[in-house]
Structures are given as C-alpha cells and as structure tokens.
Amino acid sequence: MGADADQELSSIDRIRDAAIDLFGEHGFRATSLRSIADAAGVSQALIIHHYGTKQGLRTACDQHVTDQVRSRKKETVGGAAGGGHFSVVQQLQDAPRLLRYLTRAMTEGGEHTAALIDDMLEDALEYMEAGERAGMILPSRFPRDRAAVLLLWSLGALTLHEQVSRLLDVDLLAGDDAPESLGRYFRPALELYSQGLITEQTGEGLLAALPDDPDSARPTHDEEH
Amino acid sequence: MGADADQELSSIDRIRDAAIDLFGEHGFRATSLRSIADAAGVSQALIIHHYGTKQGLRTACDQHVTDQVRSRKKETVGGAAGGGHFSVVQQLQDAPRLLRYLTRAMTEGGEHTAALIDDMLEDALEYMEAGERAGMILPSRFPRDRAAVLLLWSLGALTLHEQVSRLLDVDLLAGDDAPESLGRYFRPALELYSQGLITEQTGEGLLAALPDDPDSARPTHDEEH
DNA sequence: TCGCTGACTGAACACTCAGTCAGCCTAGGG
DNA sequence: CCCTAGGCTGACTGAGTGTTCAGTCAGCGA
Lengths: 225, 225
Description:
Two copies of one chain form a homodimer. Chain A is mainly alpha-helical. Chain A has two domains: 1-52, Homeodomain-like (Arc Repressor Mutant, subunit A, Orthogonal Bundle); 64-197, Orthogonal Bundle (Tetracycline Repressor, domain 2), CATH 1.10.357.10. Helix content of chain A is 66%, strand content 0%. Chain A is built from twelve helices and no strands. Chain A binds a DNA duplex through helix 4.
C-alpha cells in the first residue's frame, strides 16, 4: 500500500519519508544511505544532492516530524480533553511511523525533539488545568512537575513499547488497527490515576522522608525555631 | 579513579567492564572494538581472542550486567519495602553504569534483558503484595498488570533520563552523589501515587468507555439488546 | 538549433569497521 | 642454556560506510 501515493510524491519527499521509516525502525547509525535510496527508488547520490549530508537528511526528518506532530495537535485541540496527558498519545495514534521516529529520536538525541517535548509539556499543562477547572483532575502542589512526570511516563512507555508488548500484549505503536486491545495498559493506568497506589498516610510519610521539602512543614520535627 | 582496581583485574574483565561503559554511553553499534580496546588498555585483537566476536562480547556484557543486578537484588531484599516498585530503582542507585547499560539494552534489544525485566516484574509484584498486606498499598483489580505498568513507567523514565534531566533538573543516573536532588521527580510521583490524578467518577467514566471491559458492567449504556 | 539548467546516476574515493593471522615476548620447565 | 606454550600484538583483509565527481538526460527559453 501507499505505492501510488509514493509515485505522486517528489523524489525529495520520498527520500524523506523513507528515511523517517528506516531511521525510526533501525536507528540513525544503523540505517545506510543505500538502504534509504533503495526504499525511495533513487540513487544514493541523489540524497546527498538534495540534503547535503546524512546529518542534513536527519535534520530535515526531525523538522518534518515535529511539524507533523504540531499540525496534528492543532487538529485535535479542544477534542477529548478528558484523558489529560493521554491526549498526546491519542492524537498521534494513527501515525505509528511518527511515533516510532520520535521515540527513536528521544533516545538517540534528535535535534528538534527537545523543543517538541517542551511543547508537549505546555499542552499537557493546559489540558490538566482545564481538567482541573472542570473538576475531573485533582489539584497538585507541583502542577508543572506533575505534568512533566506524567508526560515522561507516557513517552517512556512508548519508547519501551517492545517490553510493553511483551508484558501486557499491547502494541502502543499499532495505530488505529487495534485500539480496543490497549485495555491491559490503560485499565491499570486509569485505576492508578483514579484511586492511587498507596494510602495517603504512607505517602505523607515517604514525602516527609525526602530531604529539603520546599514548603510543607515536617510532621516529625521542624528545623526553624 | 579506578585505575588501581583496573590494574588488579584481568584483561578479560577489564575488556568487559570497558565495553559495558561504552556500550551504555554510546550504544552498541556506535562503539567500536578499537575504542573498547583503548579504554581497557589492550589491543583490539585481544578482544576477539577472548570473546570471539563483537556480539559475543555483547552477550557476555548482558550476562554480567544481569548477574550483577540479580546479586544486588539479593543484598537489598527485605530492606525498605515501602517504595513498592521504587525499590528496583533504589537498589541500583549506586550503580549508574549498570543502569546506563540496562536502559540502552532495553531500547537496542539486549539479549538477556527480557528475562531480567520478567524478574523485576516478579519482584515488584512480591513487594506490592507485601505492601498491600501491610496496609500501605491499595489493592488492585489487575495486580500483575498494575505492577507491569508501574515497572514500565519507572524504567521508561530511566531510559528518558536525558529528558528528565532537562525538564526536572534531576539526574536519575547520577548515583549516590546527589540523592537529595531527586525530589522534583519523586515528589510529584508520590503525590500521584497517594492522592491519584483524577476523581473516582471520572476514572469510572473513562474505564467504562474502554471496549470489552472484562467484568464490570457499563453504566452509561449497553450495546447488546 | 543552440546553450543552459537541474534532477539524476554509476563509479570511484577515503575512511572505519569487525575479524584474521603470523609472529612477538615472557614465564616456566628441562 | 634451549625449548615450549600461551597471552598478546601489529599488520593486514574484505566488507561496508558517507561523500565526491564527472557525466547523462530531459526540459526550456532564445
């Protein structure tokens, strides 16, 4: 599939798309220009002709993926805001190739991914503030850091999709083929998000054990007199 | 530092340790046998002489790291069980090189890491059952899947330690140098674990929206008539 | 028809890689 | 003193890499 669409695209775009697929699947270093050229149906010299160097091609891929993600975000903004940070995942569920590339770029040090993650954090924060006003999300003493932790957990699970698949039989990168089989991941996650994991007093005890707590008074003793 | 200890080790072990460091830092493909040989103070040919192939060296590294993790687990078993799955992280906090290698192996497909993760899941499950009996951890409808999700979140945050450092200024791989500065990660995490993220009714609503829920009836509507 | 441009190519280049091999050096036994 | 064995090495090989380059070809304006 997609062969017709490939024919309609220019060589430049076909090269970029093939590179995104192969970089995302095998990684940057493990992907040779020859394999990209073969997948795109061009000579490897043409890649250099258009993108200068392999790094230049990678930069173009980074840029294109981040642009795609940002544009897709606009489409779904204001949509199902209930999921909080889930929205970041859901809005990309139909683009497994983009997700593959992103997770790869996060561990291999992509160029524009840092800025993109910052974007995602801002979005997650906005979603959660909206959910908080709607009475769906509980307030936090560390709203920004909480959103960051939630975002990192989601993205981390995505990068470990292979292990997720092994332990839970859930393919987070499957796309819209089987969205109903994500339950074994989302059900325990939802349970954790709704009822929590530990009792409140246990949490307070562990929180007090952490050094230099910023504002809360320590129940056992106080340093200022 | 460590030069004396390196001298005491045999060439075989020095090669393996250098490989673990470099594989963990730069990845398997990006690390050449030459750089490993330089770091270990031996010739490149000696690596092949001892380990046969580069893949053989990698397998030996996998084996050694998993052995180390397993042995360290025994040391700290029955220790501070309060943290639930945190124990997996805490017991390795003084071994950043092992963690680096592990996170790398998880994304690059290490050989023995799958079995090791299975081990970790079993441990996490045991810890959480103990915590549940002690009244610190809440019961779950999906105990095993919940433990898997928590484990994957922790390991995922570890693999994204670069982004964790950027967003929260917390170095999860720092080791015992600065354990007190992990607060910006653990405080929101503890808050989430104790109070949760969303209200119970919101959670029930989202849970009911998931298809083929195994046992609970759907409160809003039913498709079968 | 001519000259020009730009997409495009095959062959070659310089380089790095993992792996091979003949032989070095030294310790230990005779 | 020689001899041998084995840990160990420098030099080498073939394969694979990104990049360069001379040159082909189709299209276009004059």
